Amino acid sequence: MLPVAIHKRVYIITVCIITLLMILFAVTTIRSVEQLYRDKEAQELMTMAAVLGQRLPPSVGKVLSTPEFSIMPEHERRAALERDCQPVLDEMTATHPGYSMGYYFDSLKVIAVAPVRSNVSGSNISYPSLTDYVPRVLTVPYIENDESWDRQPRFTLTYPLLADGNRVGHVWVSVKMENIEKQVRRNAGWQIAGVWILWSILLLLMRSIFNKMDKTLALLAQEIQEGSEHPDGINQFPQLIPVLNTVTALRANLQSELQKKERMDQEIARLDRMQLISQMAAGVAHEIRNPMTVVMGFVQMMAQKAEEKAKTNFAIIMDELKRVNEIISDFLSLARNKDFERRKQQLNEIISSLHPLIYTDTVKQGLDFVLQLEEPLPEVYVDGKEIKQLILNLTRNAIEAMGEEKGMLMLKTSHNKGQVELCISDTGCGISQDMLDKVFDPFFTTKAEGTGLGLAVCKNIVEHHHGTMQVQSMQGQGTTFLIRFPAAK
Ligand SMILES: Nc1ncnc2c1ncn2[C@@H]1O[C@H](COP(=O)(O)OP(=O)(O)O)[C@@H](O)[C@H]1O
Ligand SMILES: [Mg+2]
Predict the structure, then answer these.
(1) Is residue 328 part of a domain?
(2) Low-confidence ranges of the chain (pLDDT < 70)
(3) Which atom of ligand 1 is nearest to the CA of 429?
(4) How many Å apart are CA 440 and CA 433, to the nearest integer?
């Protein structure tokens, strides 16, 4: 089963509570309306009974008590009473339709009834149940379950009748319960309808509030999931701000870890390639170098003895052999197990020793050469030969990048936070952004005659000296290589 969100549970519980309250309200409303109408009816019955009592014709007293009447036959006395009382009842029922009422006299057992006329002048009373009123003279209305009247419960009130201060009987007034109930139903119906309309509005309102909450939450969750740091709905749920901050921090961590991993994977792949090249270099270079030395020796010998016009050919052969030799040297310097002869020395001194060579190369191509060596510079713990190769590889690349055009090669040293910096920059063709990552790969070259080993060797040398190497370049504007070595302690 799917878990139900807390706000949905709150919604369901609130709806149930409100519904229960509404039902309770409806029930109490019906009760109180019913009570109200009964009270109203009781008041009415009481008033009518009092009026009937007051309107009792004075002749009734005489009929009941004077000696001349007492000698009259009983049925005549009854007829006399009915004759006097019936008009009062008729008049009352005419102005109060829906009510029934009557007079009862204890001594003569005479009853006058309205709106239906009784046959009281005879010996039989048409409504036997009315005799039940005799023992119960109640000034408080009660419900009469009348079996014989018209089989419908009635709301009835009986009230004592007095003649000359003596109780002679009672008057009764009643109304059908059905009449009261009709009014209750009509009145309570409106009230309950109002309550239910209110209930529906409340329900719709709550539904829209909870729906909005639901949507905002869902949107918020989606935005957090998609990595938004300032999602729209967050201010409506301030309790979630710490959660969002944690998620953002975790995501940033994950991102940087992933980037680190990617860089490490690239580095491992590069090292793998270097390892392979190292093994090849170690194996092949040695095997080639010895016969190469012999070949170069013989070529030199033959060149000395050769005729003048063949000498240029020998010179070309020698140049090419030197190039092959250089490639072999590059291969060898990629071999990782190569021993370094490191010692503490001044980087500026190594650069100064190369100055004439670099200067000649730049002058040959009509380039400017700027040298800015910071003094004093901390010493570095390096292999001088390797650093020379590093500098020559980089300056050679810089000169090649500037080609025949006018340009400037600059070599700068400085130091910063325990590190000695070497900066080699040119105003050459530059490197495109998509190639920046590849230039250190072995065999990557854009030159027809290039080997693609120069920068791979440089990186190797820098790493063996626990240094770092960065490249910045703008296509068509120039390139800068920045190398940092830890200062010697
Ligand atoms: N200073 C530079 N300016 C422009 N491109 C350069 C520079 N240095 C290196 N490169 C690019 O990096 C590539 C690799 O250089 P490198 O490893 O020295 O091999 P090679 O010089 O034999 O091509 C070059 O072919 C060139 O495209
Ligand atoms: Mg090169």
Answers:
(1) no
(2) 1-4, 110-111, 116-138, 145-151, 334-339
(3) 4
(4) 13
Q: pLDDT tens, 37-75?
A: 888 988 998 999 889 888 887 777 777 777 777 787 877
Residues 6+ apart with CB under 8 A from 303: 311, 314, 315, 317, 318
**The predicted structure's pLDDT at residue 416:** 93
The residue range of the domain holding 270 is 232-274
**Cα gap 130→127, rounded to integer Å:** 6
pLDDT digits (tens, 9 = 90+) for 196-252: 898 899 889 988 988 888 888 888 888 888 888 788 778 888 888 888 888 889 989
Shortest-distance atom of ligand 1 to CA 457: 17
Nearest to 367 by CA among 319, 436, 425: 425
Ligand closest to 442 (CA) is 1
Of the candidates 274, 298, 292, the residue with the CA atom closest to the CA atom of residue 328: 292
426 lines ligand 1 (CB under 6 A): yes
Give the number of other CB atoms < 10 A from CB of residue 311. Answer: 12
In order of 160, 162, 169, the CA distances from 166 in angstroms are: 10, 5, 9
The number of the ligand nearest the C-alpha atom of 457 reads 1
With the most atoms of ligand 1 within 8 angstroms of its CB, the residue from 445, 461, 462 to mutate is 445
Mutate to test the pocket of ligand 1, among 326, 329, 439 (most ligand atoms within 8 A of CB): 439
Q: Give me the helices (H) in 55-176, please.
A: 58-65, 67-70, 74-95
Instruction: Output the pLDDT for position 345.
Output: 95
Ligand 1 centroid distance, CA of 446 (Å): 7
The number of domains in the chain is: 3
Structural contact between residues 240 and 223, judged by C-beta atoms closer than 8 angstroms: no
- 237 and 174 within one domain: no
Report the C-alpha gap between 244 and 224 in whole angstroms: 7
Domain assignment of residue 280, yes or no = no
* CB of 394 sitting under 6 A from ligand 1: no
